[in-house]
Amino acid sequence: MKNQIKTVVLMGILSAVLIGVGGALGQGYLILAAVLALAMNVGAYFFSDRMVLSMHGAREVGPHEAPDLHRMVDELARNAQIPKPRVFIMDDPQPNAFATGRNPAHGVVAVTTGILGILDARELRGVIAHELAHIKNRDILVSTIAATVASAVTFLANAAGFISAFAGGSQDEGEEGLSPAQALVLALVAPIAATLVQLGISRAREYMADRTGAEISGDPEALARALEKLEQGAQHMPSPSARPATASLFIVNPFAGAGSILQLFSTHPAIPERARRLRAMNVRAQDKGWGRSPYALPYSD
Predict the structure, then answer these.
(1) Separation of alpha carbons 212 and 207, rounded Å
(2) Going by DSSP bridges, is the β-strand pair 86-90/97-100 parallel, antiparallel, or unpaired?
(3) Where are the catalytic residues (predicted)?
(4) Is 206 one of the annotated binding-site residues?
């Protein structure tokens, strides 16, 4: 609930930035930017799954090719009360996974060959549950809306930049509208602000998917351990197919080994914090009677 509220608040802030920038430039600019951003992102919403799967060379596998993986996806989809998604495998040594699809009826779960080799059945089950949580929570829709608003802000900021470049010092004192200096500041600040809010929404949705996934699997500890293994894998096994444009889709950042960046500019929350929250859930899981699978047994160290 906390991260759901955070998403709503951040979406409100992002919308306020859009309205504020549009109001500064004029209603005509606001409408044009909104239409352009909406058209661009609606296309991405409907066709992003095909594009992403193609970019990463993912191939669909049937139950006869990956029976254990299909049984796991089928069981967890029933737990999540969503249609069973299609299952894809990427020939990539880096252990990772992502989900896509514009709604639960068009869901896709994709895993790398690397993740199949590094995680045990219980940990993989936790990862699959996390990805199904993204589908259940309609995170593709949420991210598309956020991207649409952020894109509109960027379009408007670019318009402000043109105003700054071509208006020069011609604006008379007292004339309505932005001064060149104000337009330049707007062009610089607005896209950064929109991006920071959009990234905050992405991190909030990851926390939500962790929690929902742990509830679907009934096994928060499994996902916590999987995340720790996947982070190590991302640091030591570069992905040949990783793309910055799709990094936010994956359960862990595929560029984790490329160097540290400010968490404020990250699409993913820090793995230690994600694991800490999951283990806090694990304490409560036993009281709630979770553990609807033979995998969900206490780890013995």
Answers:
(1) 9
(2) unpaired
(3) 131
(4) yes
Residues in the chain: 301
The amino acid at 133: A
Tell me the chain's radius of gyration from C-alpha atoms: 22
Which residue numbers are catalytic?
A: 131
Strand locations in the chain (E):
59-60, 86-90, 97-100, 108-112
pLDDT in tens, 165-216: 665 544 554 445 566 777 777 777 777 887 888 888 889 899 999 999 999 9
How high is the pLDDT of residue 299? 47
**Residues near 288 by beta carbon (within 8 Å), at least 6 away in sequence:** none
User: For residue 108, what are the β-bridge partners?
Assistant: 86, 100
Sign for the CA dihedral angle at 60, 140, 243, 147 comes to positive
- Does the annotation place 60 within a ligand binding site? no
Cβ–Cβ < 8 Å for 97, 251: yes
> Which pLDDT belongs to residue 164?
61
Cβ pair 208, 229 in contact under 8 A: no
- Taking the whole predicted model, whether its pTM rises above 0.85 is answered as no
| Residue 173 in marked binding region | no
